[in-house]
């Protein structure tokens, strides 16, 4: 499905009622030469990335900003939980679930991503914290009294350590398991109660026409999806095609999807993370992918049915790229 970019001339400002919210750096009024941009980025470890990797390189500076995911842990080691998904949920209906004390201070000393295996109110819920710079995970059970640390062996998954850490950073929870991709393999992580990895061979869904792509794994309605944002070799900041595939684990195959139906995917291609939402409930267009691109302040809306992408300008006075903030629905 090819992309035709067209500018939305009638919408220069985003409707504040729409989700997702775009968060811009607090000092974005600073002159451009003083703000964080690509000229100040450190180059990635080229030697550690093989040709078979499906994701494009991410600089050390970009990774260091990924301290927590949207399901992250607050500074006082608690998870906020809404008692109801309805918009009328009151503050009294919300509860805070306490987590074990961070005795080793790994949350403060490491750049991490936090994931939940189930809803936080589920007694089987595992809180998983991934190191984004090392082959280490920390985990605990909801209601548990301590964190456990596990160091996995990179060589089991790939001969380049950087590739392993990058792929593990894509871990996504579906049905109580965590999934990630290594191209021609799916890796699952379960707790029995200790962390157990399994490797499942699968045909890669990557379009070999393109050498570079940003990829994202996300869960939608109980299924695992993989999204490819393909770039031409001459410009890594331009997206020329978007493909969506759903995992059929019984067939060990990725099935290409032409529609998201009533769902909308919200994707941060910079951090390779995303979420699926009911479009009508959050006032978005169904069967669309909302995404950001590196070094670009715009929000892009890709219509799966038409195969076109619309660029939305969040405001003429904004001069830096945004982050996507998803409210708790």
UniProtKB/TrEMBL annotation:
UniProt-annotated stretches for the region Disordered: 34-95
Biased composition regions of type Acidic residues, renumbered to the chain: 34-74
Xref: Pfam families: Beta-prop_KIB1-4
Sequence ranges assigned to domain KIB1-4 beta-propeller in this UniProt record: 94-300
Protein name: KIB1-4 beta-propeller domain-containing protein
